[in-house]
């Protein structure tokens, strides 16, 4: 490959598992297929980590039956030789660091699993090397004064070469303008105290970081005018009429709103704003902006402004004309997407909204008509392109591709077609089985795309040409051999998903002459299920109980053959323990709820991997094979928080008990428990969060605060808060559905660990996407349970199926109960202790679709590394949308510089208007519980400087919003009592006193204070969130050393923040 030709191109790596190679870094572009060897399963998941300017580190999950792996590399979006994959490494390891790469370049890697020289198709993953860091900007010069007034100071600073933004400090290290990186080189600091000195510094930043702070610039606000003791009786001087204002700016701010802003005019005390020559907003406007709402789309509006004082008004300014263009929906017509294993495809959607181009990434997970989160205005271009192909190996395309079409009026459509050419094959043209063998998966079809890469799918359908000889499960390919003879077993793919022929093999069934009958097997980590059953699922790296249902043909023949268990591709065979006397064969298999009634053995965790095939064989000649369904993701990160409500601190379970409870019921191998320090949610609460008529509201509010705690601490995984159980509450817990936060009662008076085994597991089920099950007066439940035909008897009452329950820690089986009176799903309100197999499977598939549950960060088929802007401070805007549609916003909360922005998708929008008239519209999806309660707002976005207002839009129109802005309004009006003011421009102090951090602040100016400790390794620990009162002593852990404290003060809309070294 000629690297001299490479500019910032994308590279791609192909990873394959192979054997017998010499470790050569070159060779042909095709993996040799060894004679007589069957390639192992393809790699199903891989990740990149710790990439640098010249290296990419890859890791992948091991594949059963593979003894080596191949790594192939090419350049993404290249042509010629650069686009041809080259073999860069053969290895028996499951990680590889590729070196000598080009900075800021994307590579495509194809990873193959091999046995000998027989290799699978490749798993593709994209990775981008980091760009060479820019040089830090030079230190900025000290700011210079532009204008000083009694309540505000305007200043500027010189542009610094190489800087993309600037941060500002006031006085003793307090960052102002919400810590945002400003792109302009002027700033007006408002809400100040008259006749007071202020110190300012500026810092220049780019993607590599920020310079040192500039030298200090000190200036002083002017004094307030002193009124005479006895005003003389004189005729007031005639003031000159103000000058004509410059034309205003007008920005579309929603489906029915335009934000109009203008520059202040010297000598003006008020303004008159005209829309189409009619005054709006009254004739006493003192602000220099106005949000004009209730407007119609597709109508042009002309705005002018007049500057006025007691002498009169100026002539009207020049006109600014703006129109709210009709927002047309973009409809995606999706076809051919294989969703049999939760497949999805990622799109880059291009649209035009509120006068701006927008591009969003959207994930499509179903066929049919899908309305995009992105819209396009009439007369503007729109389009879509594939940003990540389905991980299963399908190939999708869009038409039109890219932003090439123009909306002419009305909704527009884009075709997303995933119909994929494919081939089906069986490893062997023939197969032999014995009669009376059921549910045998000895040979399953392999699906490959046109590039000979394996497609992972659950859409293959099987059929038998002779069902009197052998029947085949249409979905799983499992064979039941009935009588001697032959049958053709065929496999096909749905014509609406794949263009593929059929594949078949000849099955010969011979008479079973064994002295026993091997009828079935089941496998268990939590639930003992038959491989291939509708809801069977395992997780990798966790022991699996395997049971063989072996029966005697005759009561007089008491011989018990040896039964051996193995994993295909591994030479180890495990002897199964069988009953001394086998039960008699009746031709049917009923679930057994005791280990002693079946042959059983445990597969050790090291053998339990994705793609595993299990073989059970008896010494009298019978075999039974299975290919269990398995997740890739298997790790839960869970932080437990002892909440302090009033004077009571929650009593906590042990980490061991929590881990046991989770592993007993949930599809996880690893449970990583973290214990948070005691935390007090700010507010006024009743004990156990219960009071007449307001208990659920208190629960919801505390849940929201715990979620804000999780976000502020930038934590991975789930947060679960324990509420002190002081008195009976009708609520035991609450959690967000599909959101990683929940709370529940603590362990007081809980000898049977009910708060752990029932409440906590129930609420964690919500966070893993589960709704309620129908029992115990549940108002809203998952419709699956009552859908006809019922999935199993009495599912409409939330009862479990007949599947045995396996307590792995105790190595015991449990029965779900008698038919008609079985135990209920733990997601109901009927004291259940286990998930139904439906709920368990739904959780597992939800986990499978989330990168955060991998034991390592598992990437999808396409992964791009994104380098965040260095020093870009983020902010959290949070609150609730009540059931009546009104919005209550919490104080704006500043975060760190490592937080990731929330995905811009959902039915709602935040509308943020800054004091200079800029409008930011940010889409978001509300977070809900499975109760009739408020919708949670929690949006992380880059900090916005000088916010004037925040509200929430639905369908482009504002909901009634009540932000906490009292202090902000007082600041703007300058009405804070002088007695509440601190002196010399100060407004807060923070100092260490022994094992306490003493914080004092002007709570009239900034009612809300938050404090975070940041350790040396960057871990954030929230000490206080939105505390009030102006004084707080925070305990500091004895022996704590290093790190820093981050103190932020908020007036509701804007905040200042300061970092204090420990």
How would you describe this structure to a colleague?
- By secondary structure, this protein is mainly beta.
- The chain is 6% helix and 38% strand.
- The chain is built from five helices and 75 strands.
- A hairpin with a 4-residue loop joins strand 74 (1044-1050) and strand 75 (1055-1061).
- It is elongated and about 125 Å long.
- Mean pLDDT is 87; it is low at 1-35, 856-869 and 966-980.
- Residues 39-133, 139-225 form the Fibronectin type-III domain.
- This is Fibronectin type-III domain-containing protein.
- Pfam families: Big_2, fn3.
Describe the secondary structure blueprint for this structure.
Elements: E1 12-16, E2 46-49, E3 56-60, E4 68-75, E5 86-91, E6 95-98, E7 106-115, E8 118-119, E9 123-128, E10 144-148, E11 153-156, E12 165-170, E13 174-175, E14 186-189, E15 197-206, E16 209-210, E17 217-220, E18 249-252, E19 258-261, E20 270-275, E21 278-285, E22 289-292, E23 300-309, E24 312-313, E25 320-323, E26 327-335, E27 345-353, E28 356-364, E29 368-377, E30 381-388, E31 397-399, E32 402-406, E33 412-417, E34 420-425, E35 430-434, E36 446-449, E37 461-464, E38 470-472, E39 479-481, E40 485-492, E41 498-499, E42 503-510, E43 516-524, E44 528-529, E45 544-552, E46 563-567, E47 573-575, E48 599-603, E49 614-618, E50 623-626, E51 635-642, E52 644-645, E53 648-649, H1 655-665, E54 670-675, H2 695-712, E55 718-723, E56 733-735, E57 741-745, H3 754-767, E58 805-807, E59 812-814, H4 837-848, E60 874-881, E61 887-889, E62 893-894, E63 908-914, E64 919-924, E65 935-942, E66 947-954, E67 957-958, E68 961-962, H5 966-973, E69 988-993, E70 996-1001, E71 1008-1014, E72 1020-1027, E73 1031-1035, E74 1044-1050, E75 1055-1061
Parallel strand pairs: 1-7, 26-33, 34-41, 35-42, 51-54, 51-55, 55-57, 61-68
Antiparallel strand pairs: 1-4, 1-9, 2-3, 3-6, 4-5, 4-7, 7-8, 7-9, 10-11, 11-14, 12-13, 12-15, 15-16, 15-17, 18-19, 19-22, 20-21, 20-23, 23-24, 23-25, 26-29, 27-28, 27-30, 30-32, 31-33, 34-36, 37-40, 38-39, 40-42, 43-44, 43-45, 45-48, 46-47, 46-49, 49-50, 52-53, 56-57, 58-59, 60-61, 60-62, ...
């Amino acid at each position: 490959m000629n690297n001299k030709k490479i500019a910032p191109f994308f590279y791609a790596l192909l990873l394959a598992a192979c054997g017998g190679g010499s470790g050569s870094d070159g060779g042909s572009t095709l993996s040799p297929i060894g004679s007589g060897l069957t390639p192992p399963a393809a790699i199903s998941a891989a990740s990149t980590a710790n990439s640098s300017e010249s290296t990419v580190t890859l890791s992948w999950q091991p594949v059963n039956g593979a003894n080596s792996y191949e790594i192939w590399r090419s350049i993404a979006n290249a042509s010629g030789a650069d686009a041809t994959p080259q073999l860069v490494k053969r290895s028996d390891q499951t990680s590889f660091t590729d070196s000598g790469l080009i900075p800021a370049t994307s590579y495509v890697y194809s990873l193959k699993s091999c046995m000998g020289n027989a290799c699978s198709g490749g798993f593709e993953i994209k990775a981008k090397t980091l760009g060479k860091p820019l040089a830090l900007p030079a230190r900025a010069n000290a700011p210079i004064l532009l204008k000083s007034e009694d309540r505000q100071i305007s200043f500027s600073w010189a542009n610094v070469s190489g800087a993309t933004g600037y941060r500002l400090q006031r006085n003793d290290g307090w960052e102002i303008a919400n810590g945002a990186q400003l792109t302009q080189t002027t700033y007006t600091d408002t809400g100040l105290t008259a006749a007071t000195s202020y110190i300012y510094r500026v810092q220049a930043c780019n993607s590599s970081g920020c310079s040192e702070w500039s030298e200090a610039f000190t200036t002083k606000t002017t004094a307030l005018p002193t009124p005479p003791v006895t005003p003389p009786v004189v005729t007031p001087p005639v003031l000159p009429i103000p000058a004509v204002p410059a034309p205003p700016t007008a920005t579309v701010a929603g489906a029915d709103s335009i934000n109009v802003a203008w520059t202040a005019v010297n000598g003006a005390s008020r303004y008159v704003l005209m829309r189409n020559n009619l005054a709006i907003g009254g004739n006493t406007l003192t602000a220099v902006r106005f949000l004009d709402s209730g407007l119609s789309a597709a109508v042009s509006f002309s705005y002018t402004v007049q500057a006025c004082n007691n002498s009169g008004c100026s002539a009207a300014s020049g006109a600014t004309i703006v129109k709210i263009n009709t927002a047309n929906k973009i409809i995606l017509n999706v076809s051919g997407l294989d969703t049999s294993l939760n497949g999805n495809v990622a799109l880059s959607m291009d649209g035009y909204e509120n006068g701006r181009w927008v591009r969003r990434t959207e994930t499509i997970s179903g066929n049919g008509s899908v309305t995009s989160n992105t819209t396009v205005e009439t007369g503007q271009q729109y389009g879509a392109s594939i940003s990540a192909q389905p991980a299963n190996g399908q190939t999708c395309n869009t038409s039109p591709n890219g932003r090439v079409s123009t909306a002419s009026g009305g909704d527009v459509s884009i075709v997303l077609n995933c119909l994929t050419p494919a081939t089906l094959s069986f490893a062997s043209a023939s197969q032999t089985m014995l009669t009376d063998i059921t549910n045998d998966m000895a040979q399953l079809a392999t699906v490959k795309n046109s590039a000979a890469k394996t497609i992972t799918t659950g859409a293959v359908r099987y059929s038998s040409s002779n069902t009197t000889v052998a029947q085949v499960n249409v979905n799983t390919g499992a064979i039941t051999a009935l009588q001697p003879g032959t049958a053709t077993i065929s496999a096909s793919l749905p014509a609406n998903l794949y263009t593929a022929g059929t594949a078949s093999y000849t099955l010969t069934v011979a008479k079973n002459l064994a002295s026993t009958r091997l009828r079935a097997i089941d496998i268990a980590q939590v639930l003992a299920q038959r491989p291939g059953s509708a809801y069977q699922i395992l997780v990798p790296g966790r022991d699996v109980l395997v049971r063989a249902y072996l029966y005697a043909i005759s009561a007089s023949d008491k011989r018990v053959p040896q039964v051996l268990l193995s994993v295909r591709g591994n030479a180890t065979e495990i002897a199964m323990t069988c009953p001394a006397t086998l039960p008699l064969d009746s031709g049917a298999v009923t679930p057994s709820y005791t280990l002693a009634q079946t042959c059983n053995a445990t597969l050790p965790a090291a053998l339990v991997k994705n793609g595993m095939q299990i073989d059970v064989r008896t010494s009298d000649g019978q075999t039974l094979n299975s290919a269990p369904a398995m997740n890739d993701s298997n790790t839960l990160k869970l932080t437990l928080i002892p909440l302090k409500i009033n004077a009571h601190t929650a009593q906590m379970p042990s980490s061991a008990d929590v881990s046991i409870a989770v592993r007993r019921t949930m599809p996880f191998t690893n449970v990583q428990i973290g214990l948070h320090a005691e935390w007090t949610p700010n507010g006024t609460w009743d004990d156990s969060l219960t009071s007449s008529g307001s208990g659920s509201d208190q629960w919801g509010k505390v849940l929201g605060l715990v979620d804000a705690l999780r976000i502020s601490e930038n934590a991975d995984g789930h947060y679960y808060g324990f509420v002190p159980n002081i008195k009976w509450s009708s609520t035991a817990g609450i959690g967000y559905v599909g959101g990683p936060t929940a709370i529940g009662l603590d362990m007081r008076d809980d000898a049977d660990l009910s708060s752990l085994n029932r409440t906590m597991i129930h609420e964690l089920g919500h966070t893993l996407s589960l709704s309620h099950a129908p029992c115990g007066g549940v108002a809203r439940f998952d419709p699956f349970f009552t859908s006809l035909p019922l999935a199993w008897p009495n599912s409409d009452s939330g009862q479990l199926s007949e599947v045995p329950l396996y307590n792995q820690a105790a190595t015991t089986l449990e029965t779900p109960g008698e038919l008609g009176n079985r135990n209920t799903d733990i997601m109901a309100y009927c004291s259940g202790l286990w998930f139904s197999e439906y709920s368990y499977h739904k959780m597992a598939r939800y986990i499978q679709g989330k990168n955060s549950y991998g034991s390592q960060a598992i990437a999808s088929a396409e992964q791009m590394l994104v380098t965040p802007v260095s020093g870009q401070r983020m902010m959290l805007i949070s609150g609730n949308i009540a059931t009546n549609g009104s919005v209550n916003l919490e104080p704006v909360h500043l975060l760190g510089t490592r937080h990731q922005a929330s995905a811009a998708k959902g039915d709602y929008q935040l509308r943020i208007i800054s004091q200079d008239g800029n409008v930011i519209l940010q889409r978001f999806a509300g977070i809900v519980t499975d109760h009739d309660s408020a919708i949670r707002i929690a949006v992380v976005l880059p900090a916005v400087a000088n916010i004037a207002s925040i509200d929430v839009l639905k369908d482009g129109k504002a909901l009634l919003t009540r932000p906490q802005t009292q202090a902000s309004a007082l600041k703007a009006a300058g009405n804070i009592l002088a007695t509440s003011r601190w002196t010399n421009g100060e407004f807060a102090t923070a100092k260490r006193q022994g094992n306490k951090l003493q914080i004092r602040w002007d709570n009239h100016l900034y009612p809300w204070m938050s404090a975070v400790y940041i350790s040396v390794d960057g871990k954030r620990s929230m000490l206080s969130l939105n505390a009030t009162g102006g004084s707080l002593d925070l305990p500091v852990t004895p022996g704590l050393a290093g790190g820093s404290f981050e103190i932020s003060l908020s007036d509701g809309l804007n905040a200042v923040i300061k970092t204090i070294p420990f």
